[in-house]
Fold these 2 entries.
Entry 1:
Amino acid sequence: MYQTNYHRASSVDEAAGLLKKADDGKFVSGGMTLIPAMKQRLAAPSDLIDLRHIKDLKGVKVSGKSVTIGAATTHAEVASNADLAKVCPAMCHLAAHIGDPHVRHMGTIGGSVANNDPAADYPAALLALDATVVTNQREIAAADFFTGLFETALNEDEIVTAISFNAPDKCGYAKFPNPASRYAMTGVFVASSGGGVKAAVTGAGDDGVFRSSEVESALSKSFDAAALDGVSVSAGSLMSDIHASADYRANLVVVMAKRAVAAANG
Amino acid sequence: MGMEGIGARVARKEDKRFVTGAGRYVDDMVVPGMKHAAFVRSPHAHAEIKGIDVSAAQKMPGVIAVLTGKELKTDGIGNIICGWMIHSKDGSPMNMGAWSPLAVDRVRYVGDAVVIVVADTKGQARDAAEAVDVTYEEKGAVTDAVSALKNGAPQLHPEAANNLIYDWEIGDAAAADKAIASAAHVTTMHIVNNRLVPNAMEPRAALGHYDKAEDHYTCWTTSQNPHVARLVMSAFYNVAPENKLRVIAPDVGGGFGSKIYIYPEEIVCLWASKKSGVPVKWVADRTESFLTDAHGRDHVTEVQLALDADNKITGLKVDTIANFGAYMSLFSSAVPTYLYATLLSGQYVIPAIHCNVRAVYTNTAPVDAYRGAGRPEATYLLERIMETAAREVGMSPADFRSRNFIREFPYQTPVIMNYDAGDYETSLNAAMKAADYDGFAARRDAAKKNGKLRGIGMSCYIEACGIAPSAAVGSLGAGVGLWESAEVRVNGVGTIEVLTGSHSHGQGHETTFAQLVADRFGVPLDSVSIVHGDTDKVQMGMGTYGSRSGAVGMSAIAKALDKVEAKAKKIAAHLLEADEGDIVIENGELKVAGTDKTVPWFQMALAAYTAHNLPEGMEPGLKEGAFYDPSNFTFPAGCYICEVEVDPETGRTEIVQFVAADDFGNIINPMIVEGQVHGGIAQGVGQALLEGCQYDAGSGQLVTASYMDYTMPRADDLPSFKVSTSNTPCPSNPLGIKGCGEAGAIGSPPAVINAITDAIGNNDLTMPATPQKVWAALNA
Amino acid sequence: MSEVSMVVNGREVSGAVEDRTLLVHFLRETLGLTGTHVGCDTSQCGACVVHLDGKAVKSCSVLAAQAAGSEVVTIEGLAPGADLHPVQAAFKENHGLQCGFCTPGMIMAAVDMINRHPGGLDEKTVRAELEGNICRCTGYHNIVKAILAASEAMAKSKKAA
């Protein structure tokens, strides 16, 4: 790791101010992606501004169907939140399968969303749930937020403070993990509401998380795994690597979509 | 057997320190004034070094020394060698290229060490390593052995034309050809044995300390054989004479072969300590381990198996190309020859065998012995082709194997080995019973209803362990003898220290070796201590690999115990005024048989050291040493059965049952033996399902250089295993032990692949059988 | 450089370290607690697992500065008395370790796992929960057995108390 200067912020404003003062600062929350990247000398921020101790950023609020998750809420806390489990169990299921137990104790939803790793789980949920990313400056629709591999609409000094969404009638998530890293090699989040069906795919797209029109149109006719029989997804814009070719990922999109729907239908 | 003696499931004596965090590994060692090293490594697979500018690095904060290969050569440090001479079939000696511990004018693989930087902290050493400016002129690279042999391939070493290290053969080519020509059925296969990275959980490390006042060196290193390290560093690398070099291998976190070899880093740390005047510690990070630990396997083979009309095997013909990487590692040459081709008879009567092996340089990390070393490659090709042949001729895999089993011992194979004992049918039957083989069809049907494809596969392996009779391996080209030494010291109060040349890096010697002693003298296990891993304490030893610590290491202890027992009986006979032939040792007492006359063990020991009343002419004290050189290899064998369910939608394989029935001869501690089998199976399943080391063919970059891309077996990849043992005692050593360390890794890969190919109905599948590959095979 | 203070194994400790210092290096090098190990660079092997404010974390992925003000328990602090912690004892009794290198992280992960499953564990859950800990020696067979045994033993002794 290169040298860096550590700062602990106790409020969002303080954090934003610290970043402005830094040469090439970065916010750190759980640090489960950033610290390993720094260890490998792939990231070298001059300053690290720690958001983990900002009280306002923590906790899950559920009111009717309306859900707000503070950005510094850990994956373990999302996974085990009883109120959330009542209205949106798929979100708990998703959080319970990010990384491993130790990572889930540190990693946060805000950190994951702001990092937008193309193999992260949360971006698929946010996109399918039509969630809103709340920052210290504005509110951004998920559809506008994820802009490419590790790219988001966030400004340099903008801090994700919360994620909010309305729980759909039904939703489900299924992922096929990369055998080595255990990140999503293909993960599909499906959500069905009065307004229709959304299906978002992570781990597979060559430009990050995306919505699958093939899956959505099939499921719009009938929100049932059988509706996906015979559906094929184009491999054209899917990733290829040593673990999975684009064709194999295209197959996994449909298979995981089926399993996500089955989970949503309980 | 007593509660703590031979055959008892004793909990390990060494565990308390490991479960409380008190284990002491090389990275835990601190020497006053110690500094930290980082290596500048080649980012290219193949390049000329045109210049090295260290001036910027030397000015970095905390930097003490920046040293290059040129300086190392000037100081007379020698090249790294391969210690086993193989001759090609034309009689010429193998073509070994030069391997300097720090590259001087050329780098040959990504990770090749070029410069060492010593600084106050590890972070500073790394910072400065990045500031070393090496000018490279890139050359073409080749990473797979088949391509490296082709005309026009990039050439690695001037000593090895066409990158060929040797072209070796064993067996009778004409007889094998004749068998194939006259066969009723010939099965032909193309077999790839995938390249693996050993991945002991403790990364390699070295701490070199030169004491100027004493002109003496100490090296703490992650070694499976500290004495061999000292010998080689003295005799070949000119680091220091043996009496001025102490090598200590303290607690070592796994080895699996990868810590046998003497690597550049320990040599360079010792030299750099003298050069810089400070103790120098280097600890690999995991990516460095991936890049520079000796890799394993990596064979490509064409094989033909000939059968007569009764489905009896008449011949086997094998043509193998073995990837050796960029340099010849310490035992590399022996792996695809005498540890591989000599096992090609397997458990079967095969009248004619021929095997040709070409060893090849490529721009990849050196390849050497990894758990099983040659024997997994032999077993994989033989058990894959046995299963395939059974399918082709329409016989059950079990009946086909059974029909061809060797049933009379000793049995001389056509490929050197003389099997001393075995009972293959017993293992096969035990495994089939444990697996409920007969119930498989019903389980397959049930799985089908759940949308899963269920398959079953078996593997009947044999290995040669207890490595090895010195004269025999010497005649085959080994540069060293493979005996073992032991010393048993009985103290004045009767407690016992055993000094052994074996080295435990997980095997539990502190327990099993003590059990042997406790069993012999009836003394408490706690009164026996095992000392190993330090060249200043133990006189000499050959270390631990090749499943040799039980069969060879413990046999040396047994020989020393014989001598102790003889002297103890003489002393007791003198004290009890009896004939020494009447003395028996039971429950910690020496007794006159058939009487109530006894002398406690401790009192006999005290008498030996007070020396007030010893037999006429006897020297005081009670300490005996022995060297044991085995008379033959040992031949553990067994049968493994794997049952899988494949998810046809994703291609993911789940191992739903794994059965191992092994014949290890006599067993000291069944709990520890079972643990060895579990771990071996996990590595074998890893090879079959998960692990595949990959280089990018164009750039020569290692693509699988971390756990992000190299799939290590995790708990949820594996089931609990059903293991059992049978026992035909080994007649070739005093304890009847065969060895158990490698069996799991040897026997399991073909069982897994036989099961998957059975499940999916497509035999065209290479390891690792990743979900993607299985899915593709299903949709082919 | 910053002065970092925390409570480690029940004792207030502090040290001046570079801000880039990882918690695992603070424990090993500044405090001499070498039971916590480093087995990889990518936060996957779990040899470095410690408890931070009562929860298992990977100390190779947390800066010492991030942990300042927290309570840390390492393998050395798990059983302060002469007796082994039930999980340590179960690993020994069930031969749940061979080379011992992954063992401290395994045991700290197991204690956390058992704490989070007061209703008990089954084999499938244990295997899934061990996703963040890699062992190369045991094939996990006896680790799983040890954790199940410890979980039962701890539940029994809780009932008795």
Entry 2:
Amino acid sequence: MSSNRFTPRGFPRVPLQNGIGRYICQLKRITLRFCKSSGSSRGIRDFIETDLINFAQDHPGTALYLKPRRHKSPSFVAEYLNGEREVISCHNFTAQQTIKWLNLYTTRSGIPLMRYAKMWHTECPSIQGVWSPFTNKDPALNITQFPSEMLSKPVWEEKSATEELIEMINKQKISDENDDNTQKVQAAQL
Amino acid sequence: MSQLGRVKQWNTFARCWHLFDAAWQNPLECAPSIEKYLKGLNKPIYHPLVDCGDHVVVINSKQIAFPGEEWRRRVYFHHTGYSGGATWTPAWELHDRDPTMIFRKAVYHHMKGNLFRRVVMERLHIYSDSNVPEEVIENITNQIPPLRSIPKTLGSYSKEEIEKYPKIIDYPEDFILSKN
Amino acid sequence: MLTLRRATRVLQVLNTTQKCEQSFHRWLGPTLRELKRRKDSQGPEKPAHRKTFLEWNYDTEIYAFSKRLGEEFNNDLLQQALTERSYIIREEERQKNVGIEQPTLNLSDNKELVSKGSDFIDDIVKRYLRTVLPRLPEEGIIGIHKHLTSIQTLSHVSFHIGTSDLILCADFPVEKLTLSNVLKSIIAALIESSGNSRAALFVRDFIITQLADKDLHQFWEPDEPIKLLSEILARDGIQSPEPRLIGCSGKNTILACFRVGLYTPDDKQMIGLGFGETVDIAHEMAARDSLRKLFGTSDNILLPFNLKLDQLCASSARNLSVTEWSQKTIPAHPSHFELRQAKEICSN
């Protein structure tokens, strides 16, 4: 359902900054509608017999109403603090299933289902400051005259044969000089 | 949006201008790095649907280089749409007609064909030589490093450098190196 | 469930087509269409108050309301807080119309509670802001306070804690002014039921938390930031700051972006950074940035929302006004960190 491209798109949010101060259960009212005799309401009747008191005690902030209706398919209506209202069919539910669905609807915020563009949302995306093209840029670029001689060189390049040859020659020259020097020193010592 | 939020976004999405010197560069090799700046792929804020690309000013496109037989063998195809309207222009001929065309085509054909390609190409400014209008040069804040260094030609060596160059043998005095 | 139902329906249709007869009457479609047309011609349905529904028990709702907020209310006071003057007048008129000459309603309205609650909210909000933002000038405190205690904010809070169904008033749908008045009176009822400290926590949790994730300077912006900054720095003996262009991109285009830094002329320290479409805007934003730094209200500030009544400053304390603000004369308030530590020691 939430993958449908026609469902509204948005970011996860909470009503009234819920949870920053204190947490409020957003479900304000719940109405269980069921039939006293039909088989499809059997699970919800079981739930009312066994678990309804516990449920009401666990959620004192939710007003709970029972509404028996003859020969009607069972359902419950969840009403939220933000004014939203949802009807959930409980046709042929077992008591366990009813508990699970009620649990889901008590923990919801009441904001209608939407396709999440991201699974998180923040008003303050970065503590260190948002990136910009000027971040980590060398300030010397501000006063550089373009095209600049220094920046017109490749970042890395292999040595050419000519350069290697000159290097080898220079090395040889130095070693020759060293040899000459040592020979001179040896001669002087002799 | 608050005043600060507005200028923050302006700052993050500021369009930069980059310079690229195409002298002695292979346009086919340069296209990927140029495309990176044109589309904004170098930015951490990049997203295919976000318009965050930069401008690139290419100079000296007349001096581009192709390896091997490429100038003769590379052919640019065009069809007028009428029967018998197909033409095959060799690279050297196209370069003679319009020195910016080969570079532009290289970048254009390197990019994936979608609706954004023409928009992105509008941000590529190619000049055949280094005579760029002053108002364009003033915008530039960065230079893209070339892929290869410009090779030194024999004529550019000074006399001292040639004399200093290490020799393996000495030519005999009557040996003729060149006619002039 | 739906698919099962649909499958049985399809089977039914298949069975009927075999018998070559329709499963529904010929008049069904036209009748439904006619009903729809008549319904549409009546215009949109008017909203009905929740109390007109069959499943409605006011006592249950009131009980759930107080439990939801996690507070212990005196039931009579809460009832009084939710009763508007307009409701009593309307009920009396109704009784008179029926023929009762001296109508008696055992109800009292929330007028006194509203004024009491309003004063309490003003006091707590101001003290809270002065405690957590000791460097912000008094004008800023008043600006933020004005936003927090506006009818817009208070009615939003009031609606989202679920008062709109419970208010006894003549107007429906409930007006924003009524909603905010009821929130004030609920807080006054809470003061009388559970004491000041509980009520202060209530104000903190529901009203002050509305500041979370918001830029504080949207509620108060100094008009001439460049002038104000140089005045403030002059009081500390610093010459007026020197703006420098430290970056720009595409300066001959309409998408130009300039960055201006403000430097102190003596020791060449950068005190603010601004950016914008023109150099003037960037300069102004740089001044605003340095003011933010001075006032301790940067855009990513984390306000502590965990202070109790005894950790707030006295109601007589005032922050410095803009006209006398300088770093030398800032009084030494405890920092957020110290306040948090104090709270942890208390809880241990």
